[in-house]
UniProtKB/TrEMBL annotation:
Residue ranges of domain SnoaL-like in the record: 4-125
UniProt-recorded name of the protein: SnoaL-like domain-containing protein
Amino acid sequence: MLIADKIALQELNYLYAQYIDFHQVDEWVALFSEDAVLDERPLGFGVHEGRVAIRAYAEMLAASVLHAAHLVPNILVAGVGSDEATGSVLALVEAVTRDQCRMRYQISYEDSYVRQDGEWLFRKRVVRSTVPPEIMRAGSIC
């Protein structure tokens, strides 16, 4: 894998965070392949298969979240092939919902990436908490 590919995959992760934080649904959904899977079951937010389902999830988030900040300082990418890669990302996510619930998550993303038409996209993203649930609940104010 070339350094340029690693930089492009880091940028993909930064855009993921920025687009969802600023409710840029179209741009966020475009970061996923048509057959992508976004699996947030470990956090209790379900699994979303395909861009249509991912869009519906993003629209729900945009409607219910007033403010969010995804901090993604740790992005590790491993090469699998010329048009596929895997990676993991650690993130700190803070959000305030429209009903004033404040949430904080320390999570990891387990990613599969695919290059299509020269662009890197998410093929699969599994979100997991890196903190036990009882500690996570203690960091939320609802």
